[in-house]
Structure formats: structure tokens, C-alpha cells
Amino acid sequence: MFTVEYCKTKAGFEVKPLKKTLINFDTLSRKGKILISTPHVCLLLIDSLEVIVHKHGLINFKEKVTKEQARKIGLIIYSL
């Protein structure tokens, strides 16, 4: 379904889908509070964490998160 690994800078984790995925930003409002939305990127507030969701499925985090927190957020977002 997805992988959780360190981002390129090793500053934190990122969640990547295993298959090509397009995220429907209209349905993200059911998963958390949308702070900012553009056609390609959406900033969500989920469980008090600011989560950056890219249209192509990549998920980054503004704050430092544990691997387990990143996995949990991935499950929430990819279960749309």
C-alpha cells in the first residue's frame, strides 16, 4: 500500500504510495482540517500535526514525527 522512510534530507519521515496514486483533495476535509490548498499540494491538520499532502500521493510532515505516527497518518489519508 505505502512505504514510510526517511526523506532525502533525513530530517524526518515521508510516506510514499507503492503504486501511482492521485489524491482527491475534496475528500481530505473528512480526514482533517484543511489549512491551505493549491491544485498540487494541500496542508492538513490531523491529530495536531501539520501534514503536507501532494496530489501524486507523497506525504511530508512539517514537524518531526515518529515512524509510527507517519504510518498512522498514511493509513488515514490513503483510506479515502
Q: Could you give the topology of this structure?
A:
Blueprint (H helix, E strand, L loop, with lengths): L1 E5 L6 E5 L7 H4 L4 E5 L3 E6 L2 E6 L4 E3 L5 H12 L2
Antiparallel strand pairs: 1-2, 3-4, 4-5, 5-6
The helix fraction, in percent, is: 10-25%
Largest sheet: 4 strands, antiparallel
Number of helices: 2
- What is the CATH first-level class name? Alpha Beta
Strand order of the largest sheet: 3-4-5-6
The third-level CATH topology is TATA-Binding Protein
Round the mean pLDDT to the nearest integer and report it. 92
SSE pattern: EEHEEEEH
First and last CA, distance: 13 Å
Counting DSSP E segments of at least 2 residues, the number of strands comes to 6
Structure description:
The protein is of the alpha+beta class and 80 residues long. It has a single domain (2-78), classed as TATA-Binding Protein (2-Layer Sandwich). It has 2 helices and 6 strands. The chain has helices spanning 25-28, 67-78, and strands spanning 2-6, 13-17, 33-37, 41-46, 49-54, 59-61. The strands form 2 sheets. A 4-stranded antiparallel sheet has the order 3-4-5-6, with helices on one face. A two-stranded antiparallel sheet has the order 1-2. The radius of gyration is 11 Å and the shape is globular. It starts with a strand and ends with a helix. The model has no long low-confidence stretch (mean pLDDT 92).
